[in-house]
Amino acid sequence: MTLSSSWFWPDVSDRKNALAAIDESFWVTMLLAALAAVSAFIDFARDWQADDRLRGFAGTAFLVGVGLGIRQKSRIAAVAGFALYVVARLAQWVASGHSGSIIFLALASLARWHGVRGTFAFHHFASIAAGTPSIEGSFCSLRQPTQETRQKSEPK
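The chain above was modelled as a monomer; its predicted structure follows.
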């Protein structure tokens, strides 16, 4: 599978790839939140009237919350984030008459869709069995033996 095909439609049939799709969606959501925050700050800085301009900050906070929900592998957050992003962008397109960047809309929507696929795939996998060593635990056998361990292993 090439890099472009793996990005446009990643295989989420195993845990590692599902987690990669979730991480991708998280970082795209954080990028969108950062862009929304910059836009809201610029809009607010032009005129210091606290009227409808504060909605931009509320939208930014919502995006950060959705991103953190995706990071926690929440299917609800992933679906809500994807659906609200697409609906908001389409409503903006209808209201303003121009679409903005179609490429950016398509790529951001696709990355958010990968988060939906990744969260559903992640919850489809069986949970990791109890007693399975962590990465740290699996390397414990490789560490240097202590003085006590050396004394036990030496013949008397």
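Residues 32 and 47 are 23 Å apart (CA to CA).
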